[in-house]
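User: For a benchmark we're assembling, each entry needs the component sequences followed by a predicted structure for the full assembly. Here are entry 17's components. Please fill in the structure.
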Amino acid sequence: MAAAPRHREKIVRSAAVLFRRQGYAGTGTSQILTVSGAPRGSLYHYFPQGKEQIGQAAIEYAGDLVTGTLARLTEQRPTPGDVLREYGRLLAGWLQDSDYRDGCPITTTLLELAPESEGVSAAGRRAFAAWTATLEQALLAAGADPVRAPRLASLAIAALEGALVLARVQQDSTVVTDAADDVADLFDAATR
Amino acid sequence: MAAAPRHREKIVRSAAVLFRRQGYAGTGTSQILTVSGAPRGSLYHYFPQGKEQIGQAAIEYAGDLVTGTLARLTEQRPTPGDVLREYGRLLAGWLQDSDYRDGCPITTTLLELAPESEGVSAAGRRAFAAWTATLEQALLAAGADPVRAPRLASLAIAALEGALVLARVQQDSTVVTDAADDVADLFDAATR
DNA sequence: GCTAGCATGTGGACCAGTCTGTATAGCAGG
DNA sequence: CCTGCTATACAGACTGGTCCACATGCTAGC
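Assistant: Structure for entry 17:
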C-alpha cells in the first residue's frame, strides 16, 4: 500500500449529501469532486464503474446511517410506538433545520434510477429491508402478531417516506410528525 | 390566430411521462422533442422560461389527472375507505403493468426541484392540496370528525406516496395495496 | 370579396458550456 | 523499484437555450 486512501470516504459522503438535495442526475461528478476536494483520478480509481457505482455506494452509506439511528432508538425507547414517534420528530427537525432541503437521503436517487439500474435498486432494497426489519423486530419483541408486524413496519416506512415528500413541498413538517404519531398509535394497539 | 397549436399538449404529455420514469434532470429537452415530435422552436415558443416551466406544466397536468381519478372514485364508491382501497389497487396495477417504472407522476420531479424552484414547488403544493381535499371532503361527507379528517387524508396520501417508492424498488406492489387497506381501515373507523 | 399586413406558430441550424469518462504522468511508501 | 494512489489535461458527446427564416390563417381596408 501507499498514500493512504484519503478520498474514497469523502467522495461517498459528499455524493450522498448532494444526491439527497439535488438528485442523482442533477449532480455532476465535477460537483462531487469540488465538494469532496478529491481529484478526478481518485474518483475513477475507487469507482471504476463511474457515477452509477457512486450512487450505489451513497445509498448504502446513507441507508446504514438510518439503520443505525433506528437501532439506537429501539434500545433507548420503551415501545415501538415511541421509537416511531421519536424518529418522526428527528426527521421533522432535520427537515426544518435544512430549510426543507434534506428529505429522505435515498428516495430521490432511487426514483431516478430504479428499477433501471440493478446495482442501485439492490442497494435500495437492502436499505429498506434493514429499516423495516428493525421496526419489525421491535414489534415482535413487544408481543405483536408475527403476521401483522412486517406489514405494520412497512406501513410505517412508507408513511414516513411519503410524509417527507409532502413536507418538503409544503415547507411544513407537521405532516411528518402527524403521520409518525398516527402509525405509532397502530403500533401501540398491536402490542397491547 | 394561425397555425393551430398542435404541439403544446404533446410536449407536456411527453414530458410528464419521461419525468415520471427518469426524473427531471435525467430527461433532456431533446428527448422530450423526439418523443413529442415537436421542433425545438415550438418548445421555447410555448415555454419561454424553458425546461423548468415544462416541469411545472407537467406537474399540473399529472396532478389534475390524479385529482380527477380520485373525484370519480369518490362518486362511484360508497365509503371513503372503499375509495382508498380501490385507488390502491389501481396504482398497484399500473405499477405492475409498467414493470415498476410508473410510480407517482410528480414525486420525482418535486424531490429534484423543491423547494429550490418556486414555480414547481407551488404546482406540487396545489396538486397535493387538491388530492387531500378530495379525500377530506369524502371523509367529512361520511361523518368524520372535522379535526381528524384533514389529518387522515394527509396520512393516506403520504402512505400511498411512500408505498409507491418502496414498491418500485422492491418490484413488488403488495406494499401499495397493504398500505391503502390499512389506512382505509382507519377511514372506516373514523366514519362509523 | 380581394389582398396586404400581421400575429401566431413551425422548423431547424447553431452556440457556448457542461457532462462523464479516459489517458497518463508523477508521487509516496513498503 | 513496484504498487496504490493522486493529479491534471483532455476528448467526444450532449446539454439547454438563442436566433431567425418561413408557413399559416385571421382581419382591416378598400
